[in-house]
Amino acid sequence: MIHLIEFFYSIPGWLATFLLAMSPIFELRGAIPLAIGVYGLSPLEAYLISVVGNLVPVVFLLLYLEPVSRRLMRYRLGKAFFTWLFTRTYRNHVEKHRKYGLLALTFFVALPLPVTGAWTGSAIAFIFGLKFRQAFPAIAVGVCIAGVIVTASVIGVISIAFG
Asked: Tens digit of pLDDT for each residue in 78-112?
């Protein structure tokens, strides 16, 4: 863990922000506070870099999750994992999807809470069979909304703490 922290201090702030925004755990919810609080990037820079970084893996997830999962399901461990993932995700999100469609996906991604980001949104889109041209815009709008919420929250916390 310490090596990871040292790595992020050794690279430019914009690159650290971009890479953290691409990660499945932190996404832009971790990247924006890092960019503004640690690297001193402006809120606009932090927002733009984080949104773009968060959307890069979405392209690959939406395009390649199906063929990769199909290949991995040939193996017992892969089949067990994807069966668990598909069952859990379908069970947790089927009613919202039926009721609200793509709007549910957008709002799910827009909520800046743990496990509600672009990575999980891409998995949901895959499980519900959404095509790239449907899913990507819905996820992208959700990421943009989440970015606004996180950026505004960081600015608010900084102004309260140091204002």
From this structure: 889 888 888 887 787 777 777 888 999 999 999 99
CA–CA distance, 112 with 126 (Å, rounded to integer): 21
Q: Is the dihedral of CA 32, 34, 37, 40 positive or negative?
A: negative
Closest CA to 59 of 147, 117, 133, 127: 133
- Domain containing residue 11: 2-162
Helix axes 102-110, 132-162, angle to 10 degrees: 30
Q: Which of these, 71, 113, 131, 114, lies nearest to 122 by C-alpha position?
A: 131
pTM of the model: 0.87
Q: DSSP per residue over 7-70, as a string?
A: HHHHS-HHHHHHHHHHSTTTHHHHHHHIIIIIS---HHHHHHHHHHHHHHHHHHHHHHHHHHHH
Tally of domains within the chain: 1
With a CB cutoff of 8 Å and minimum separation 6, the contacts of 138 are 102, 103, 105, 106, 109, 121, 125, 130
